[in-house]
Write a structure and sequence with these properties.
123 residues; flat; mainly alpha; 0% strand
């Protein structure tokens, strides 16, 4: 994998927790809105932003998949998915315990194994 592709995959993995954070902001904002659900949905600015973010990241993902095998690119999403609880802890003060650290270490270990396997296949 060339550096540009690895950086794009890493960028995508960072886009995942950003999108989830936007959806959480939208959920918090939704509780403050009044009126029927349809009105709340179309007036919830963070929700509109979250959908826009996911639209852009879907296009970015499509572009990545034109360059990188799915099995390789998807491994990067493991890293991004693991960051979501950390962002939730930092931004929303959601609780975490030692099991998160252990689980994330296992995820990163799996990512490292997958990347080593990709290098072996390519080399």
């Amino acid at each position: 994998m060339i550096l540009k592709d690895a950086l794009m995959c890493a960028g995508f993995s960072l886009a995942l927790p950003i999108g989830q954070t936007l959806f959480k902001f939208a959920a918090v904002n939704n509780a403050r809105l009044s009126g029927p659900l349809a009105v709340k949905l179309v007036t919830n600015v963070p929700l509109i932003g979250a959908f826009a973010w996911y639209g852009l990241t879907a296009l970015f993902w499509f572009y990545i998949l034109t360059r990188v095998p799915l099995s390789t690119a998807y491994a990067f999403s493991i890293v991004g998915s693991g960051l979501v609880p950390l962002v939730a802890w930092l931004v929303f003060k959601e609780p975490l315990d030692w099991r998160f650290a252990v689980g994330y270490a296992l995820m990163l270990g799996g990512f490292a194994v997958i990347m080593q396997g990709q290098r072996a296949l390519a080399g």
